[in-house]
Amino acid sequence: MQITQLPGIYNITGSNQDEAGVAYKGTLELTLDENNRINAKWTINNNQEQLGTGFFKDNILVINFNYKGDDDTIYKGVVVYKCITKDILDGFWSEKHGNPLYLGEERCFRVGLQQEVVN
């Protein structure tokens, strides 16, 4: 797979980095900058925006991200996606101040892809 196949909009489903594993949904938009680095923008539950930058090698996408929490604190973390196909990403993530006993999880499906195919 080539990095140029990644840009696009993905629907996401995920669970948070805690014992409860609270589920969330949203979108992820991936673009490339002039140096072929990934720019990412997540919109979680229609109200939280997260931004990140990253790189791609051997079908692995790594993105450092940050966002402003409801308490006005800037939270930072990293997400690692395995690119199953150019349309399906399977990942896990961790935040600096998250519960170290757990990882968040996230699956991304390119907009327009039938999710039933994944199972």
Describe the structure.
With 119 residues, the protein is mostly beta strands. It is built from no helices and 8 strands. It has strands spanning 8-15, 23-32, 38-44, 48-57, 60-68, 74-85, 88-95, 104-110. Strands 1-2-3-4-5-6-7-8 form an 8-stranded antiparallel barrel. It is globular and about 35 Å long.
**Count of beta strands:** 8
**What gross morphology would you assign?**
globular
Give the distance, in angstroms, between the N- and C-terminal Cα atoms. 21 Å
Rg result: 14 Å
Q: What order do the helices and strands follow?
A: EEEEEEEE
Number of continuous helical runs: 0
* Strand neighbour order, sheet with most strands: 1-2-3-4-5-6-7-8
How much of the residues is beta strand, in percent?
over 45%
Largest sheet: 8 strands, antiparallel, barrel
Please give a quick description of this structure:
The chain has no helices and 8 strands. It has strands at 8-15, 23-32, 38-44, 48-57, 60-68, 74-85, 88-95, 104-110. Strand 5 (60-68) and strand 6 form a beta hairpin.
Write the topology of this structure.
Layout: E1 8-15, E2 23-32, E3 38-44, E4 48-57, E5 60-68, E6 74-85, E7 88-95, E8 104-110
Antiparallel strand pairs: 1-2, 1-8, 2-3, 3-4, 4-5, 5-6, 6-7, 7-8
Notable characteristics:
single chain, 119 residues, mainly beta, eight-stranded antiparallel beta barrel, 60% strand, disordered C terminus
